[in-house]
């Protein structure tokens, strides 16, 4: 197998060879605008591109560690070819490790057979790492008829959707710069109210400026009495709909705007010819009601998707002693961020 860097004229075939928007050419261009380095590799059999991957490299934000960290989100299932290529990239970029979160999904209600893959990773110097993505997500089959999808909602969710209709909540697409500004405004209100960490406004503005022409990024608003209550950013990529970002105002919660928004996104995905709706993240099969994200998990669960599990997060480590020091410093940094933003431990 030939492994080499992807050329700019190969953008279209590269996007067809990968399976997640965070591996897309457009996402890589956006991340370059935020100041990180991006590497794209293609895995060829003859002249045919079989698989591709995209790694971003970031400066470690800790004093005394003059190294980079690589990040490979939602790539193909790791194998010896991938691991060898990643080690070469790590050496080229003076990376302490590369964080790997494969886009490998398995039904959460049956035990996943990840043992051989975990053994392969560990034999090559990988260790469990701090996750950036949750290990679980809900995925909904959009090929079913709309009436069956609606019938598959939980009774409480169906009630809330119908209530939002009766209250006069309206959903509309606003995939414009104004729509992104509206999202940022509501997000800042949400961050201030709930005290959680999120990307700054410049991050989302660069996202829109870089990715809007591709048609991959969509913005939707839910309004009540001419006021935008909820704003969501959606991705459409290779016939899969994704829900990565959302923000809501605190008032008029009784009109259930977010419930209607999610249902209308399901309908939108079907209209766009998507076969799957990936809701981007959730808790596991038996979540604790004390978990601060339990309400969000329950909200998504109400739409009838299947809970899926990934293998999780592994760090492909180049220097284990220094990595251990890094993890100590990283832990202290996150404790400080949680204290600063009131995030739960």
What report would you give on this structure?
By secondary structure, the protein is an alpha+beta fold. It has two domains: 2-132 and 312-341, Gcn5-related N-acetyltransferase (GNAT) (Aminopeptidase), CATH 3.40.630.30; 138-308, Aminopeptidase (3-Layer(aba) Sandwich), CATH 3.40.630.30. 38% of the residues lie in helices and 27% in strands. The protein has eleven helices and 15 strands. Strands 6-14-8-13-12-11-10-9 form an eight-stranded mixed β-sheet. Strands 1-2-3-4-5-15-7 form a seven-stranded mixed β-sheet, sandwiched between helices. Strand 12, helix 9 and strand 13 (276-278) form a beta-alpha-beta unit. The longest helix is centred in the last third of the chain and has 22 residues, at 320-341. It is globular.
Summarize the structure.
The chain has eleven helices and 15 strands. The chain has helices spanning 11-17, 25-33, 80-92, 115-123, 146-151, 155-167, 177-194, 201-211, 257-271, 294-301, 320-341, and strands at 2-5, 37-45, 48-59, 68-73, 95-101, 105-107, 126-128, 136-141, 170-173, 217-224, 227-237, 240-248, 276-278, 306-310, 314-317.
């Amino acid at each position: 197998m030939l492994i080499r860097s992807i050329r700019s004229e190969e953008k279209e075939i590269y996007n067809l060879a990968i399976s997640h928007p965070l591996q897309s050419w457009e996402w890589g261009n956006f991340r370059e605008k935020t100041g990180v380095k991006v590497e794209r590799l293609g895995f060829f059999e003859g002249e045919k591109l079989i698989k591709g991957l995209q790694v971003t490299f970031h400066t470690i934000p800790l004093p005394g560690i003059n190294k980079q960290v690589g990040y490979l989100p939602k790539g193909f299932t790791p194998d010896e070819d991938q691991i060898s290529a990643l080690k070469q990239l790590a050496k080229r970029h003076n990376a302490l490790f590369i964080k790997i979160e494969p886009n490998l999904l398995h039904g959460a209600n049956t035990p996943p057979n990840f043992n051989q893959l975990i053994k392969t990773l560990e034999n090559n110097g990988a260790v469990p790492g701090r996750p950036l993505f949750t290990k679980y997500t809900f995925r909904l089959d959009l090929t079913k008829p709309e009436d069956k999808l609606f019938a598959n909602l939980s009774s409480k969710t169906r009630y809330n959707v119908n209530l939002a209709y009766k209250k006069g909540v309206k959903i509309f697409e606003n995939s414009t710069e104004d729509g992104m500004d509206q999202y940022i405004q509501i997000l800042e209100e949400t961050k201030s109210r709930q005290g959680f960490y999120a990307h700054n406004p410049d991050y989302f503005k660069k996202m829109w400026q870089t990715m809007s022409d591709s048609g991959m990024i969509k913005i939707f608003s839910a309004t009540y009495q001419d006021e935008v209550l909820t704003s969501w950013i959606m991705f459409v990529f290779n016939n899969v709909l994704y829900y990565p970002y959302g923000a809501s105002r605190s008032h008029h919660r009784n009109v259930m705007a977010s419930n209607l928004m999610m249902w209308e996104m399901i309908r939108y995905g079907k209209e766009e010819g998507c076969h799957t709706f990936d809701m981007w993240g959730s808790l596991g099969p038996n979540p604790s009601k004390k978990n601060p994200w339990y309400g969000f998990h329950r909200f998504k669960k109400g739409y009838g998707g299947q809970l899926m599990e990934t293998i999780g997060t592994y760090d492909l480590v180049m220097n284990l002693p220094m990595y251990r020091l890094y993890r100590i410093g990283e832990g202290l940094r996150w404790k400080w961020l949680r204290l600063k933003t009131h995030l739960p431990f």
